[in-house]
Fold this sequence. Notes:
Helices cover 29% and strands 32% of the residues.
Amino acid sequence: MLQQLVAAGKRTLPADQAYVLSTYVENPARIRCSLAEDAGGTILGIQSLTRAMDGNRFNTPIGWGIIGTHVSPTSGRRGVGSRLFEVTKQAARDAGLQKIEAFIGAANAEGQAYYEKMGFRTYRLADGAVCKAYDVEQ
Ligand SMILES: CC(C)(COP(=O)(O)OP(=O)(O)OC[C@H]1O[C@@H](n2cnc3c(N)ncnc32)[C@H](O)[C@@H]1OP(=O)(O)O)[C@@H](O)C(=O)NCCC(=O)NCCS
């Protein structure tokens, strides 16, 4: 699924198994990594929530959550990302997070629209990226 996103020009990060394991699944800063799948077990999307640690690559304030969302290009705009965020939101509450930050490419209009719809608001601009923050209701 991530390799399909790369082929569709919607992902520039690596999409190999080792990267997925170390960044999403086995990341020591992981709070929750959720998968969406269809009835047949085909993966439709993945959403990662990690805790911002000292020196994180996004410069996110320490202790905030960092979110990443990746939905199959053949399953877009069908509510997969919205369903994933329901789970992530609860995980953020359970972990006691106050804020979550999304780091989105400045040219990524659909990513920005998605996070806006989920309730994120622009908080700062980084080099080539828009950073949106979400207030976690406790
Ligand atoms: C951005 C992304 C996560 C959205 O996931 P999704 O499953 O398509 O999202 P949903 O179907 O739940 O849509 C929720 C809302 O997001 C917005 N949205 C989603 N796709 C959109 C698009 N192509 N254009 C405009 N708005 C869009 C809409 O507001 C939508 O609500 P609506 O359909 O009621 O209008 C998905 O397109 C994706 O993985 N893109 C590639 C990777 C990426 O950009 N990740 C996020 C930034 S790092």
